[in-house]
Amino acid sequence: MDMDMNIVVTNDDGIDAPGIKALQKAIDSRGIIVAPLEHHSGCGHQVTTDKPILVESRSQIEYAVGGTPTDCVRLALTHFCPSVTAVLSGINAGGNLGVDVYISGTVAAVREAAIHGVTGIAISQYIKKGLAIDWDLSAKLTTMVLEDLLYRPIEPGTFWNVNLPHLTSDAPPPAMIFCPPSTQPLPLKYFQEGDAFSYVGEYGKREREPGTDVDVCFSDNIAVTQLHLY
After folding, report:
1. Which domain holds residue 32?
2. From CA 110, how far away is CA 73, in angstroms rounded?
3. What is the pTM for the complete model shown?
4. In the chain, what is the greatest distance between 2 CA atoms, to the nearest angstrom?
5. How far is CA 28 from each of CA 1, 24, 73, 113, 196, rounded to the nearest angstrom?
6. Could you say which of 11, 57, 97, 123 has the lowest number of CB atoms within 10 Å?
7. How far apart are CA 81 and CA 189, in angstroms?
8. pLDDT tens, position by position, 102-137
9. Number of domains in the chain
10. Residue 2: strand, helix, or coil
11. Is residue 204 a part of any domain in this protein?
């Protein structure tokens, strides 16, 4: 990886989450960490403008932000790494496939980077129900992906969304497949108890339109989609 590349690392699971540590491992601990102090999964492109954002400086290259992933990118661009050349977000614990990108804080972070003309790559680890994540494998696959995407030309106003498959130890190496995002809705299923409704839709049972990111990732390959701002 280019030593001169100024990389900002963030996520939506929080600065102490195992996924961001795996991402740091994937890039040999290069880059500045500017990540939320707390969990913000599913926050979308939420920003904080009505109150101060507290920042805990853990070192000269690690900042825990009392705000959202988008807040983290905004602060990185303006205060902690104005010369940033790429924003990496993840590795998210759970897929961000298809329409997930509209609610994902992981993806929102790199969307914000793209708005400012900075390369953005979101990485998420799909989870098969009942299986634990092998974060070392996630880091290894992420290294392979970044060795391509960080140096691949990308048109202005676009950014990358990557979803890693959930593989078993004996699975063959996955292919990296560029594909369109699924436009199918997530399963809508709720359990009602009195006046309370709990979401019980199963992620792994969503529609698998052939050739889309959902189908590619669920088929044990790495799904890479190029998303557009407008």
Report:
1. 7-228
2. 8
3. 0.95
4. 58
5. 9, 6, 21, 22, 46
6. 57
7. 43
8. 999 999 999 999 999 999 999 999 999 889 999 999
9. 1
10. coil
11. yes
